[in-house]
Write a structure and sequence with these properties.
By secondary structure, the chain is α/β, with parallel strands linked by helices. The protein folds into 2 domains: 93-218 and 372-422, 3-Layer(aba) Sandwich (D-Maltodextrin-Binding Protein, domain 2), CATH 3.40.190.10; 236-368 and 450-498, 3-Layer(aba) Sandwich (D-Maltodextrin-Binding Protein, domain 2). It has 18 helices and 14 strands. A 6-stranded mixed sheet has the order 2-3-4-1-5-13. Strands 6, 7, 10, 11 and 12 form a 5-stranded mixed sheet that branches. A hairpin with a 2-residue loop joins β2 (114-118) and β3. α10 (295-309) runs parallel beside α17 and α14 (398-408) crosses α15. It is globular and about 65 Å long.
């Protein structure tokens, strides 16, 4: 019995000792945890403070960098302003005539020292800039320009046209007159324009071989395709693969049927392909006083009629809301130069193909060019030095040329600058990271202007209008539509006859 009591006592003592030991260990663990937590809190606080200090230093550095960049930009603008000698200019107002906002955006964004005042006014130094913008619809821009050029000699100093823009379709109408100044008279030399694509100079060279205008852009055209539709229907969105499906007109038309089966239109309208055909003609619209309809123009009619009848495209008017619907995803292809995909195709608009970077570019069935904008100095300007400097900076300055490509996705009229950018890793966000410059460069070298005439804009517009009646069934036959064209063109140009 005594042994049991002693054993019980010993067990009790051991348990008590164990409990005491556990309590001591627990206290030590608690104390250690408290110390660790305290140290961790201090470490976190130190790290947070260091991060805050670093962030402050980074923000300060960013602010300093931004300030330095702003100072540099301002210094460059000031230097450009100081370097520009305007002593020969007497005008207080620079009047610019154009048909849309494109050139205005280029001058606003890229000309050193330009300050925007409002939608139609700006300033360059002490000179007020006034924008006279008249849309081209129904020849309105040319009519307005002609009216003011005719009154130029008697216009008040601040109302004289200083600078105006022309397109390829009617450039000859102006450059072959005394209303435009030779660029040499504005201080622009052959050396200044040596890197420009030859065709851009040919378009604005008068019958005496005198250069009368310059352009900041080249306008070789390509086919822009919807990458998502290509991947779905053709099995690939890669340019080399897509080109095989559109390599000529026969193949393009076969592909159109596949596109339609998948629920899409191959183009938004028949007018989308018109410039490709019309730029690959073998004769001029007008020879002497006779209007001639080239075989390739007739091919456009035949191919377009087949696409419309198969409901693979529409007859929507170019620039209309219906034409623009494909910018958001239901049209496979548009045809045009760099200015089309940048300036016209809803880049920046929520949900557009351009904003999402889902267009791609290929050469398409044929190389072509479309449009372009040329800057002409008006005879009688009282701001010749400023006009000349605007022309030189926006069309001859290689750094500005590169900046236009980077910021505006345009194709600039400078061979060396474009070659450098083509090899530099430049990519277009709109085109899904593709570099289109090699295609543009190759296309620019192929442009043939031998079949241009001063009547091209009117002939192109009236022919498309007449053929729309045929495509829509309002004219029973091609011959009936052709009679509509003959009537319209002789009303517009009474001196012409149609063969």
């Amino acid at each position: 019995m005594k042994k049991k009591i002693v054993s019980a006592f010993l067990c009790t003592t051991m348990v008590a000792s164990m409990l005491a030991g556990c309590q001591g260990a627990a206290q030590q663990a608690t104390d250690a945890a408290s110390d660790t937590a305290s140290q961790a809190t201090e470490a976190v606080a130190d790290t947070a403070q260091q991060a805050a200090d670093a962030a402050t230093q980074t923000a300060d550095a960013a602010t300093q960098t931004a300030d330095a960049a702003a100072d540099t930009a301002q210094q460059a603008a000031d230097a450009a302003s100081e370097a520009l000698d305007l002593s020969a200019d007497t005008g207080k107002v620079l009047n610019i005539y154009c048909w849309n906002e494109e050139f205005k955006s280029r001058l606003t964004d890229h000309y050193p020292g330009y300050e925007e005042v409002d939608a139609t006014h700006g300033k360059i130094g002490d000179v007020d800039v006034v924008w006279n913008i008249t849309p081209s619809d129904d020849n309105a821009y040319q009519n307005n320009l002609d009216e003011h050029l005719l009154a130029q000699a008697d216009a008040a100093e601040d109302e004289k046209i200083d600078l105006f823009l022309v397109e390829a379709d009617y450039a000859l109408k102006y450059v072959d007159t005394d209303y435009t100044l030779p660029v040499a008279d504005l201080g622009i030399t052959d050396a200044d324009t040596a890197d420009q694509y030859q065709y851009t100079k040919d378009i604005v060279t008068d019958s005496n071989g005198v250069l009368k205008g310059v352009s900041w852009q080249g306008c070789p055209g390509i086919m822009f395709y919807n990458r998502d539709i290509a991947a779905e229907v053709l099995g690939s969105e890669e340019p080399d693969d897509v080109q095989e499906f559109v390599k000529d007109w026969a193949t393009f038309n076969e592909t159109a049927a596949k596109i339609k089966e998948a629920g899409y239109n191959v183009t938004s309208t028949t007018n989308d392909t018109y410039r490709v055909y019309s730029n690959n003609v073998s004769s001029k619209w007008v020879d002497g006083n006779t209007v001639h309809i080239d075989e390739n123009i007739k091919k456009w009619v035949d191919d377009s009629k087949a696409l419309v009848d198969a409901k693979e495209t529409t007859t929507a008017e170019l620039w209309s809301d219906d034409w623009k619907k494909g910018f958001y995803g239901d049209v496979f292809a548009y045809f045009g130069p760099a200015w089309l995909v940048n300036f016209c195709m809803a880049d920046g608009e929520e949900g557009s193909v351009a904003t999402n970077g889902r267009w791609g570019g290929v050469v398409g069935p044929q190389s072509f060019f479309w449009g372009g904008t040329w800057i002409c100095g008006a005879n009688g300007t009282d701001n010749p030095a400023l006009v000349g400097d605007i022309m030189r900076q926006l069309t001859c300055n290689a750094d500005i040329m590169k900046d236009i490509v980077e910021k505006d996705d345009d194709f600039a009229n400078n061979k060396t600058a474009m070659a450098q950018m083509a090899e530099s890793g430049y990519t277009s966000r709109i085109l899904g990271g593709q570099n289109p410059l090699p295609m543009y460069m190759e296309g620019a070298e192929k442009i043939d202007l031998s079949n241009l005439s001063e009547y091209d804009q009117g002939c192109n517009e009236e022919f498309q209008n007449a053929m729309k009646n045929y495509f829509d069934g309002n004219a029973a036959t091609y011959e009936d539509a052709l009679e509509l064209f003959k009537k319209a063109i002789t009303e517009k140009y009474p001196e012409l006859t149609v063969e």
